[in-house]
Write a structure and sequence with these properties.
Arrestin C-terminal-like domain-containing protein; Arrestin_C-like; mainly beta; Arrestin_domain-protein; about 50% strand; Ig_E-set
């Protein structure tokens, strides 16, 4: 359900998320399984007093698949799958007091996410996954309209990544050009840079000419692309693929030099290239019953050579490798208590009091500590 924020000439309501909880992506807090986030609902009034029934904070999570129709039938039906819905009353009128007399009220709240692996926050043409906080001032008893606001929470699941024990080497050949691409991992997190070692060489037709064999196979350009594919589980034929990161290396560009190495075909050229990843990439998803998100690294190497027996000819080597985009860096492991969201289990977040959430230290109370005299006497 989409909530449209309402406006009122006298009363305004807003939701503030405190910055010290969670990590940020493009200055926005991001939360995951087990995360705790704290915020404040602000209620401001230009005139007071204001009569009201209660102030309610609601937290909802849900995923939706867009319905697709070919003019005759639905290829993909509209899918709505709510994860949870919960609310907490921040203030409520009493029989004797129904007036808000101050110009500014602050209502703090703390929410802890369950150890459940939900899909990530997404707003895609085929699929949407949203986690929304909404706060509303209800005044139905006084026949006044409800004032409400909404704040979207960015959520990311725990997706592990790892290095390879042995480098992955992909090879390709076209029109006399041999090329290989070496990667030390096939899993990265948003914001990483993918380092790639590209080696090119040529098979020379006239092997009697030693000078030709010693010449490396220089390239005109190396194109690196990361392609994202989003597909619906119920209809794999319905998918959208797009390039989400791209880097083009040209031989004429400064700094893009190569090293000469020996290969089985003679002299070779070794290029060190890299593909920077955006910080806002959606992680790879393979556990959802509604959507799949996968990535492919495309490498296109172009080289030109002038033949002694004919005109200039081009060689193009294309390579593709499946990549995994995770959210946890190398060596970081998710909790063993983590469960997938569609399993029949308790999966609702919890409203907590103050900062007393699970696995936190108890609040400091000096009355619980032994006196200094007692402590020293025990040591003696």
């Amino acid at each position: 359900m989409t909530i449209t924020p309402s406006t009122d000439p006298i009363v305004s309501i807003s939701i503030e998320l405190l910055p010290e909880f969670g990590f940020t992506v493009q200055d926005e807090p991001v939360y995951g399984p087990g995360s705790v986030f704290q915020g404040i609902v602000h209620l401001k009034m230009k005139e007071s007093p204001v009569a009201a029934d209660r102030i309610v904070l609601t937290f909802r999570g849900a995923e939706h698949a867009t319905a697709i129709h070919d003019g005759i039938k639905f290829l993909v039906p509209l899918i709505k799958n709510p994860f949870f819905g919960m609310q907490q009353t921040l203030w409520q009128r009493t029989r004797d007091d129904c007036l808000l007399t101050e110009s500014h009220y602050q209502f703090p709240f703390t929410i802890q996410m369950p150890m459940i692996q939900f899909p990530p926050s997404m707003d895609h043409a085929l699929y949407q996954c949203k986690f929304d906080l909404s706060a509303k001032l209800i005044r139905t008893t006084f026949t006044l309209p409800t004032v409400l606001t909404q704040r979207t929470i960015s959520y990311m699941p725990f997706i592990e990544t790892s290095l390879l024990k042995q480098p992955n080497i992909e090879e390709g050949y076209h029109n006399g050009l041999y090329a290989s691409a070496q990667l030390h991992s096939l899993a990265y997190v948003p914001g990483d840079s993918i380092p790639i070692t590209v080696v090119t060489s040529r098979r020379h037709a006239n092997k009697k000419r030693k000078s030709e064999e010693d010449q490396p196979a220089e390239v005109n350009s190396i194109l690196l692309e990361l392609c994202e594919k989003v597909e619906l589980v119920q209809s794999r034929a319905v998918s959208i693929t797009r390039v989400v990161a791209s880097t083009l290396y040209k031989a004429s560009s400064k700094g893009h030099k190569y090293s000469m190495i020996k290969t089985r075909n003679g002299g070779g050229a070794e290029y060190q290239v890299a593909l920077p990843l955006p910080v806002d990439l959606t992680p790879s998803i393979n556990y959802s019953k509604v959507v799949r998100v996968s990535y492919t690294l495309r490498i296109k190497i172009k080289s030109s050579q002038c033949s002694l027996m004919g005109p200039l000819f081009n060689s193009i080597v294309d390579m593709e490798l499946p990549l995994k985009i995770g959210t946890l860096g190398y060596g970081i492991r998710a909790s063993q208590d983590l469960q997938v969201y569609y399993v029949d289990t308790e999966s609702s977040p919890r409203f907590l009091r103050s900062l007393e959430y699970e696995e936190s230290l108890p609040l400091y109370e000096s009355s619980r500590l032994p006196s200094y005299q007692q402590d020293t006497s025990l040591i003696a």
